[in-house]
């Protein structure tokens, strides 16, 4: 069958780069050839910190994640949704983890899991899109087109391999004014030979190209180089993940376990990346929450605890700090469908060998509420600032603004 006609303009628009960037010039970019050269010529030194960001899309119910099992208000507001005290993985005499989180409970016992409580931002928004935008841009007061990791990239030089998003979709957190993190797809599905030839021709430079169009072409050529170079490295990551643990997908289409297997391979190989972004979806539990959330938390727990155990046994892996967050928590009171509706504050999990385990931040009251919502006790930008300062070794001000307070988990 004859292949469909593809013209150059359709190729460039179909790449999504022009629309995503919203610019026609002034864009700084790098090729995958540059990235592979960096990986071979200057591997990350042992002791140089790495941050892995886990985004839990959908608004995870923090109250049934870090459970206030000894609080009567918890049981009164959730008569069918609450966990009985004997079913909770006790952390102390008041709080415990969801029963699906046995691996992270062991990390807590080992002193390498920190739980930052009541995390959120001023004047919370119940919209998934706006709230996630706030978390990823770290700008609660105004809408901006750069993310906090993107601004960190802008402020710290032009080494392109410093941040990698596992999957073909770049989250807002990774986009800077002049520098953007790389998107690394691990699907393993290539194009037909005939299609590769067509796209190679369309991706050739032309004298009239704008800077943005030239970037699309450069990125396509570079991606081919990256695939041939890193393909063998990444091809084995699937074997780390048993078929029974694939579960929910991230925004890029692969399971969290697969994404973290890719990160583990890169870390152990010495790839000089400082920040990795991975994700898991499905936490918008308005109905029948208990079974759905427990399944998702089990997948999160299995993927994270396996990754952390692997990292703890590797010299370079011991430099890794993982942060898991969601765009908001849920309301205290269960709804009529045995689910929970969009809320505000929630816990942030931070884990890894460099972490000082324990509770940080005040536990929000279940009775002193803001129109049914938990009151924020910890600003999320303080978490980010500590990661940049103590894990990445940089000034957090360009990324999250001035005046942030250290929390102490690193």
Automatic annotation (TrEMBL):
User: Record's InterPro entries?
Assistant: DUF1501, TAT_signal
Superkingdom, taxonomy of origin? Bacteria
PANTHER family annotated for this entry? BLL7424 PROTEIN, DUF1501 DOMAIN-CONTAINING PROTEIN
Which protein, by its recorded name, is this? Uncharacterized conserved protein, DUF1501 family
Organism, by scientific name, is: Williamsia serinedens
